[in-house]
Amino acid sequence: MELLERIAEQLDLGKADEVAALTTEAMAQGLSAETILNQGLIAGMDVVGEKFRTHRIFLPHVLLSARAMHAGMDLLKPLLIKQDVPAAGKAVLGTVRGDQHDIGKNLVGIMLAGAGFEVIDLGTDVAPAEFLDAARRHDARVIGMSALLTTTMPVMKEVVELLAKEGLAGRVKTVAGGAPVTEEYVREIGADAYAFDGVSAVDRIRRLMEEA
Amino acid sequence: MNIILENLLAAKKVLLADGAMGTRLQDAGLEPGQAPESLNLTRPEVPAGIAAEYIAAGSDLVHTNSFGGSPLMLAAHGLADQCEEINRAAAAAAVAGAAGGGLVSGSIGPCGRLLTPYGDVDPDEVLDGFRIQAAALAAGGVDLLTVETMTDLREAVLAVTAAREAIGKGIVLASLTFEPTPRGWFTIVGNDPASAAHDLAAAGVDAVGSNCGQGTEGMLSVAREFGRVTDMPLLIQANAGLPVLQGGEVHYPETPGDMAEALPDLLKAGVRIIGGCCGTTPGHIAALRGVLDQYKG
Fold this sequence. Notes:
The structure holds two protein chains of two kinds.
Chain A lengths: L2 H10 L3 H13 L4 H21 L5 H24 L7 E6 L7 H12 L3 E4 L6 H11 L3 E5 L7 H12 L7 E5 L5 H7 L3 E2 L3 H14 L1
Parallel strand pairs in A: 1-2, 1-3, 3-4, 4-5
Helix pairs in contact in A: 1-2, 1-3, 2-4, 3-4, 4-5, 5-9, 6-7
Chain B lengths: L2 H10 L2 E2 L5 H6 L11 H4 L2 H13 L3 E3 L7 H5 L7 H16 L4 E6 L14 H17 L4 E7 L2 H15 L3 E6 L2 E3 L2 E3 L6 H10 L4 E5 L4 H14 L4 E5 L5 E3 L2 E3 L4 H13 L2 E6 L5 H13 L3
Parallel strand pairs in B: 1-12, 2-3, 3-4, 4-5, 5-8, 8-9, 9-12
Antiparallel strand pairs in B: 6-7, 10-11
Helix pairs in contact in B: 4-6, 4-12, 6-7, 7-8, 8-9, 9-10, 10-11, 11-12
């Protein structure tokens, strides 16, 4: 089997050590970091994302695959930086203030990283100003907000309002998601897109980047 | 079947549990981000009052305010070292509120972390935490223990193991949260009701079922799936429907009347312990009481 296909396959199986070894082998064979990234790691995460979206696999499988992806990515990163290979985009992610739930947010981060994005993950309990500061500092064009509680959802609105107040609305796009969050709610608070799950978050963010 | 539960069900046919806790705590002034369990120490009259409210509405059993009371979950609020006193206080508050009018069950929710290898916390650490929590709830005077809202069967098994050790021959209930998929009901980590019933029975549980995540319609489907794979009594605590937004406010659409109307089908499916989860109120519990008082079994 071709090396890149084997990377994708081992990534799907969640084998971090194998993915790292195969990535090293591919680099030694002279394949470019960009090729290994796109046709090995990202191709593998695409398969994982699709299986997850269609409920053929569940969270543990995705998390183990993500670890395998990062094992390969860590090896490629220095080369990607040196060769100035641009990321698909930069996104700031976080679970909003007062909310500690991070499984959904982490999945979005995994799927974004797996699609070649640079992810700045601010963790949980993130205040609106922290989202803005990070977006400014990293020149990110997308803020992804997660809330699992009906009581913390309104913080998403604060983020949107703060962006408007600081004159960043339009330049920095907002995506919102989380169990109680709906398309209707996202429209109501004026965010740019609603993400049902990690895979749809990538689609929405890709679309927003094209508009940006 | 557990002899205590068997006797209870022989006498009562169906046990009516309580409704939502979190929203009642917010009504009482719990701040977003504040640990709900801290109120057991600072304002025990609040959880006690909620227990009393549900008993007055007709609950046969009420839960302690200790859902997030495992050391790992409390650690997110810097309260891990107060696990024992928080859970003791939670038990004492609910016992005081119930005032002998019903049973008190110690609530044990998820630890908030994922187990290795896919997560970062060692199962032994999680088990040790549940042991501290369950022992403190038992020492505080609860009659039984409820492991609830679990989304990883491995973690649920750890909690039931700890609960069984703490409560001896007492009753242990366990309840998971499922999501619909084209292949049936699964937890987010991929456990179906059949494997849940199997593994939890092996860990010493007395009744299994589901809470949170679904309204009565979804729960009926979950209950029927459990009914096909186990003879254990079933426990169901549905949300008052799935939350919808009205003018920026979160609203749970199922009324007490809606839930009362759905109850006979749930009972037919084998549900023997019924209560409510998010969005349910003493009004919902009172409506269920009305149906149960007419129920002949």
